[in-house]
Structure of Sugar kinase:
Amino acid sequence: MSFLTSISSPPQINSLFSSPIFSLYRFYSPLFSSLYHHKRSYGSGRIIRELGFLGDFRGKGRVTSGSMGKQKGGFFCVSSPCGSRGSCSCSSSNGDEFESEEDEEEVDDEEEGARSFCVLPDRWDVLGLGQAMVDFSGMVNDELLERLGLEKGTRKVVNHEERGRVLQAMDGCSYKAAAGGSLSNSLVALARLGYKPIGGPALNVAMAGSVGSDPLGGFYRAKLHRANVNFLSEPIKDGTTGTVIVLTTPDAQRTMLAYQGTSSTINYDSCLAGIVSKTNIFVVEGYLFELPDTIKTIIRACEEACRSGALIAVTASDVSCIERHYDDYWEIVGNYADILFANSDEARALCHFSSKESPISATRYLSHFVPLVSVTDGPKGSYIGVKGEAVYIPPSPCVPVDTCGAGDAYASGILYGILRGVSDLKGMGTLAARIAATVVRQQGTRLRVQDAVDLAESFAFNLEGSSSSVSSDVGSDHISSL
């Protein structure tokens, strides 16, 4: 018997998993298979009442921002770096002239990149739609920030001239380039966790977005490819790839300057529709809501994902972004999202709760509108919410070195748990917390290759040999129900 089918769960959980499981998803969780089956059967993109504890909280009408969260309680052409079915191929520079943030992993990356995508899969396990930005990270002193007139610890959108002025001021400083972005951090971690077929087939992970035909665009594509994440979007001719300059002062505070470039334009066309229609989990990055008119692209992509039976995940990304584009967030979260990733501040912002409200209250509230809600609360732990209930996940012990990227790593753990067959929420959250802790105790935002392999092996072993120790907390006294 497979370790995936040997997990014992309380009757309340078992009732969810009575739907037939397609052979294609025999390695996936019953949660994924049940949701997929019903979305395929009904084609509405909304979870129906028959799904037990994940089912009956969505209304029949469309959700609007005015009806919720106001009060308490209540463009693309598929390409492959080495060719694919059809004639598309990568035409960009490989970007080797840039120093990589992951230079300390060169040996691991070379081994990892050995599995090339010469033939694209029939379906993608996960496809992310997000901002494709190259990060320039450097250590600076407070004097430089003052000279540039920058407020420490803030994030600012800059134009081409401002970017040039900052880079010129950094001349002589040591900085590194990386294929950055919150979503790409999660996708790389997921691909590394699923690189070797431990407990299931190797995972096929991809990303779509906008990069220019400049060397930075080639660098971005090449770096993701080395991490076994296929970047499926053709470069925009004469476009300029977006960048984020990350200035870190000795007190570990980060000041970020974002230049959107071509990444501010993401259009919906038949090629993007074709990619989305062949995806099992479609992830939308919340930072996209900052881009003009991108909400139209997101809505059409989500509608296509619903028609094809894919699960839709949304990352909250940033509190200020939520506040500026609140209605757009709820257009997607309220009508399409099956999974929501947020930290405690972002969750409160989505609920219009004050800072005095607990993250568990926000988790419970959001879980009335989204089937699976993941809310992280830093060193205090995290919560997974379903239908007005919240499972507390203790933090995984670690000595923090760099907390940047912790939430991205946590999200990868939730996605990996679903795809690898976890039917209990506590076990899924425990895995996600361990992955986040692994990233927090290192310098840099990416889950390293060997750490990912070790985590995947340990997770598979624990599921197979100790299923009783990870039984679900649904129905136990660890859950607080409204």
